[in-house]
Design goal:
Blueprint lengths: L4 E6 L5 E8 L7 H9 L12 H8 L3 H13 L7 E3 L5 E7 H8 L4 E5 L4 E4 L4 H4 L8 E5 L12
Antiparallel strand pairs: 1-5, 2-4, 2-7, 3-4, 5-6
């Protein structure tokens, strides 16, 4: 973090974190073309906007991506009952203790304090080296990680 932030303490191991794993979406290479088709007056698809369901179905991660991440979490000791897939299928969600997430990612979570007194939880980890190899192309982001903002708090 910037010099305005300082590690104040380790985050308690039994604290529950809302672990969210963002999956790689499918068909993103088609996005610009599809948007141009519905927005150009001379296109036969002009004005034929998609529903949220159509967008989610077209761009949702592949079943293989979802299965790979579920497999990674299952192998790490998370039961299927604890995992949820978001409505858009773009996120795998699991509530996990700090200790569980630290073991999964081989990292440590800390509380960082800003010079203004605001606290933020986070961790530094080399993303590509902490995601299981067969999942590394399936995962685009993982939270909570480290995003320092003066508007966030641990409470």
């Amino acid at each position: 973090p910037s010099e305005d932030w300082e590690v104040s303490r380790r985050l308690e191991g039994d604290r529950v974190l809302p672990l969210r794993i963002g999956l790689t979406q499918s068909n993103l290479h088609e996005l610009e073309s599809l948007l141009m088709d519905i927005s150009h007056p001379e296109s036969p698809s002009y004005g034929q906007h998609w529903s949220a369901k159509q967008v989610a179905e077209h761009f949702s991660p592949s079943d293989e991506s979802i299965a790979a991440v579920h497999g990674w979490l299952t192998d790490a000791g998370f039961s299927s009952e604890r995992m949820r897939l978001s409505h858009s299928k773009g996120w795998v969600e699991v509530n996990a203790t700090v200790s569980e997430v630290e073991e999964l990612l081989q990292t440590e979570y800390n509380v960082y304090t800003h010079t203004s007194g605001v606290e933020q939880i986070g961790t530094f980890f080399l993303f590509s080296s902490r995601i299981r190899t067969d999942c590394s192309d399936q995962v685009v982001t993982l939270t909570p990680s480290l995003n320092m903002s003066e508007n966030t708090s641990t409470s």
